Amino acid sequence: MKKETFYRELNHIRDSYVLEAGKKEPKRLIFGKAQSFLALAACLCILLAGAFVMNRPDNRPHPQQVQIPNPLWQVDSREEMEGLLDFSVPVLDKAVEAYIVLVDDSRPEMARVVYTDGTVFNKKYGTGDISGINGGTLEKTETVGELSVSFYSYVDVDGKDTVYALWEKDGFTYSLSAENTTFEQLTYDIQILDLKE
Amino acid sequence: MWASSRIFKEIIFFIFKRMSDFLPDAVYIGEGPKIRKETRMEDDKIIRLYWDRDESAIGETSKKYGAYCHAIARNILHNLQDSEECVNDTYLNAWNAMPPQKPGILSVFLGKITRNLAFDRYSFNRAEKRGGGEINLVLDEIAQIVSDKEDPEQTVYGKELMEAVNTFLAQLPEEKRKMFVLRYWYTEKVSTIAGRLGIPENTCSAQLGRIRKKLKQYLADGGFSV
């Protein structure tokens, strides 16, 4: 059959089909070919919105990185340490590992003497605990000479036993700590330090 | 730029389509419906005018179905002047046909006349080597269903053949049936059909191909050597 004949014959398909195709409403959106462009536009909108949200200014502070000066100044001698601080620093008669000045807000505030056997002595203007040990147990408070000394013990996570003592005198606060030693040795050292003040 | 103009066009089309819902017996065909504000007469009243040999029947027909017939003719001829003449000939044919005929669905009755006339005009133009457009593509697609060779038996089962086509169409899902009719009866562009049905053009084209293949097989199974 010739295609033209078949096309002409198609004029005899049911009226209801012709009416149905010509009249009825489409089921879905009529955007058709433009649908993909709409989808693309929607994606772009979402991306733009995301970029806007990510870049919008917020109220949180965003400080630039700054260099903090080292708060621990190690010096070569007791004299140098005392030169930086405006008070004297007594030193025990045993080998010293380091003389350290603790600085707060660029001002030398505290003297620290670290001995080779692990003993650490701190001295500073003011009051309070300057041992740097947190969580020690108060074992006793004794009078050593004219000083009222509190003795503490502390076991760190590695199992090392540390004992330390805190006292105050003439507007200064002191601490002395040592590893694997006794309160008697600590008392002796405190007496020496007091004598050298 | 193309996409935005296309979207704008679709939106306007959509609004027009919604507005058309408020008009009685709105028929959507072609690139977009024509909105007419005049009051349109009921079909049976128009048919009565024909039967009463009242010449106002032509005016009422033109008012109500002019755009519909134009769209059918334009799809086949792609020529405004030829389409205009076809539609005028449709009114004349309708005038000559009624009475004695009393169409059940006036729009389809007029559409069939227009389609026939437009195809006659297309055949004439093709012999004169002018015109053509979507109809050529539609005919090429139909050539995938039929042999496109002269068949002396065709007159024998012309009516039976269409019965078979109607039965085949009845078995199709509504959307596919509409797709087939829009393409091979209304001679609509694939892009227009896809837009109407809300599917991508490629999908529409592929589905039409499958329908043609099924129809060819269906007719062959029915003993029609088309």
Explain what the structure shows:
The complex is a heterodimer of chains A (about 200) and B (about 230). In chain A, about 30% of the residues lie in helices and about 30% in strands. Chain A has about 200 residues and is of the alpha+beta class. Chain A has two domains: about 5-55, no CATH class; about 70-195, no CATH class. Chain A has an eight-stranded antiparallel beta sheet with strand order 1-2-3-4-8-7-6-5. The N and C termini of chain A lie far apart (about 125 Å). With about 230 residues, chain B is mostly helical. Chain B has two domains: about 1-130, RNA polymerase sigma factor, region 2, helix turn helix motif (Rna Polymerase Sigma Factor, Chain: A, Orthogonal Bundle), CATH 1.10.1740.10; about 135-220, Winged helix-like DNA-binding domain superfamily/Winged helix DNA-binding domain (Arc Repressor Mutant, subunit A, Orthogonal Bundle), CATH 1.10.10. Helices cover about 70% and strands about 0% of the residues of chain B. In chain B, α3 packs across α5. Chain B is globular and about 50 Å long. The interface between A and B is large, with 38 and 62 residues.
Features:
heterodimer, A: 197 residues, alpha+beta, 2 domains, 31% strand, B: 226 residues, mainly alpha, Rna Polymerase Sigma Factor, Chain: A, globular
In terms of per-residue confidence, which ranges of chain A show pLDDT below 50 for 5 or more consecutive residues?
Answer: none
Helix-strand string of chain A: HHHEHEEEEEEEH
Q: Enter the CATH topology name of the largest domain in chain B.
A: Rna Polymerase Sigma Factor, Chain: A
Q: What is the terminal-to-terminal distance of chain B?
A: 46 Å
- Rg on CA atoms of chain A, Å: 42 Å
